[in-house]
Design a protein that fits this description.
The protein is α/β, with parallel strands linked by helices. Helices cover 38% and strands 16% of the residues. The chain is flat.
């Protein structure tokens, strides 16, 4: 059996994700007949059936499901290798940090200052994204290290827990909920979060084992309204209008006081666990230096800051 080529893996992933040869061919920018022949050749090389085909549908076999998982990992690795090689060849190397804006416990300026004192420090480029975008950026080589909320799929990644801070309820100051100093998730029935999920059903997976074997997070979640991509200003405006509620980390609430928004504690709301993550194969002195600096700053300053944040924003 000869080794599979990257081109073949790309063909297979497209068909396996679309479960339709016509759509996969369109996605790949090629005709359907050569794509069908390429998949049959893969099956001949491997000696297994990857896809069950009928006149009505295409489904993955157990062998196909296994190949899909590993093919995605392999393609990510190839893409990451090319990106990292190009960046390593640049005349001015840098460290690319992926994170969600404001999800740094309020410590990023101090971390940067401490990092610049490290001998291996490089200029830092920020790769800002929405929730759940940091882990893919590590896998495809766009980022060298990420600061992201746990849990996430940590397979193939090294992880350093950084800090834990409470999350609060952000609600319109005119909302009856604002009259309470402390609430429970059940009190939020009928309210929705910025992405449309019911606020009283806030829950996240508790470990990497909760993620599917495909190596990808679920792309859809039950919601009470269509998901929207909103920036911080839009979120605050919708909260003030009473359209949504939100669960910001205490450090975000402390940095963004607004007269039209009340911040309240929710007794059974899980806290935010923030961590650093980077590829296990990384041997970058700059990454190691960033982890040292960030861990030292968080350990030295965060507990006191978190306590003050809660007291300041919920009174």
């Amino acid at each position: 059996m000869s080794d599979l080529e990257v081109r073949q893996l790309r063909y297979f992933v497209a068909v396996a994700e679309e479960l339709h040869f016509g759509r996969a061919a369109e996605r790949l920018g090629m005709a359907q007949p050569p794509l069908s022949r390429a998949i049959r050749e893969m099956e001949r090389q491997l000696g297994v059936t990857l896809l069950e085909r009928t006149t009505r549908r295409v489904t993955l076999t157990p062998a196909g499901e296994t190949l899909l998982r590993d093919a995605r990992t392999a393609l990510d690795a190839v893409t990451a290798a090319a990106r990292r090689a190009r960046r390593a060849g640049q005349s001015e190397p840098s460290l690319r940090l992926a994170l969600k804006a404001d999800y740094d416990g309020g410590l990023l300026p101090q971390i940067f200052a401490a990092y610049q004192n490290e001998a291996a420090a490089l200029p830092v480029e920020l790769l800002l994204g929405g929730r759940d975008e940091q882990e893919p950026a590590l896998r495809d080589g766009r980022a060298d290290i990420a600061m992201l909320p746990q849990p996430f799929d940590d397979r193939g990644l090294d992880v350093e827990p950084l800090l834990t801070e409470p999350r609060l309820l952000a609600v319109a100051a005119t909302d009856p909920l604002a009259a309470h100093t402390s609430l429970h998730l059940a009190d939020l029935a009928g309210r929705v979060l910025p992405d449309g999920r019911p606020a009283d059903q806030e829950a996240r997976p508790t470990s990497a084992a909760d993620f599917p074997d495909t190596g990808r997070r679920p792309t859809t979640q039950p919601s009470a309204a269509p998901s929207r991509s909103l920036d911080l200003a839009q979120i605050f405006s919708l909260i003030e209008l009473g359209s949504i509620v939100w669960f910001p980390p205490a450090s975000v609430a402390r940095r963004h006081p607004r007269p039209g928004i009340a911040y309240r504690t929710v007794g059974d709301l899980p806290p935010l666990h923030l961590a650093l993550a980077w590829p296990q194969e990384s041997r970058s002195p700059a990454v190691a230096a960033f982890v040292r600096a960030a861990s030292a700053i968080a350990a030295a300053t965060y507990p006191k800051q978190a306590t003050a944040a809660i007291e300041n924003v919920t009174q």
